[in-house]
Design brief:
9 strands; Rossmann fold; alpha/beta; 4-stranded antiparallel sheet; about 375 residues; 3 domains
Amino acid sequence: MADQTQDPAPGDALLVPVGESVTLRNTVANAIETAAEEGFAEAHFVTPVTWHHVGDVDRAAREAVRRLLDRVSVWADEDTPEGGPTVRTNVIGSDEYLFSPDDYAAVLAEYADEHEIERILVDPEYSPGGNVPLLRPMEVALAKRGFEVSEAPTSRPVRRSRLTRAGGALQFGLLFGVSFLFYQLLGGFSIVTGDSFDFFYELFSGSLAAGIVAGTLYTVSLSDRTRIRSLLPQFVRLVLFVPYLLYEIVKSNVVITYIILHPKLPIDPRLTRVRSAVWGGPALTTLANSITLTPGTLTVRTEGQDLYVHGLFAGAREGIAAGSLERAVRFVFYGRRTAAIPSPEERGDYEELQGPDAAPAPPDGGEEELP
């Protein structure tokens, strides 16, 4: 069995990022053959993690990655000739939020630099971002970092459209339904309240608009593969989340009204940065938009898990530091077991970038003078 724990000694090695694909078996065989022919001492098969969690969220995803590496290890052992390269397997990026091609390139480059690897071989069907096509941009980002990147010459199958891939129709249908309902909401649900002409017009125009939105965005808006068994619990928790969000909005509106009517206008605007403990596009988008919808706070920018939030008054910033909305969003997407995760302030993931506690900028934009 391939070594999965011992740190390899520095030397010539081949790095192969792996993931579930139809050409994975051929890629493993080609990697071992390439390493043997070119005299590499080691072949490293690594998997950048595609789950992002705290605690025991999504245990099935962790087990799937372990099974993948075990399978790769067995295949590599079968293909390695006598005196061939040592095979090693590892999970990388477990402490990072991987979103963009550069994120995947960064964790691969870090691993390669640590083990003095210069050559990277990739599976031509490898999809590090799930449904989102990141392979080519990731290869470019690795090449810019000075690595020699090539694709395994495996036989490519006939590509299926994304709609016919596993989970593709479900993702399309889910976004279509949400878009159709949102269209009807904007139109005051005249499909129900109007006459027969309104019904057919709203049905046609709503279906057309929802079809365009779903057809162009379902692999982007729903980049993680949708699982039917998790949809219903998430929907139920979302229904419970909406009244809580409305309560936070009303409460903040009351505070904002008081501030506006107060003669001294007691505002204290500052920019803060919080590293959120939620993962995946839908969860991060929900958190960022929920913060923005709550008067007194505005999500200015996101970088991975980092949210840059403008707080108009101290109470708004205290709510961000306490992580009440973050905890509610985790409840929606991951369930009740994530409620025990400490708040951003307790984790050390909250920082005020402006205000009395922030470092003052040097005068005239210059460098600070050394004593």
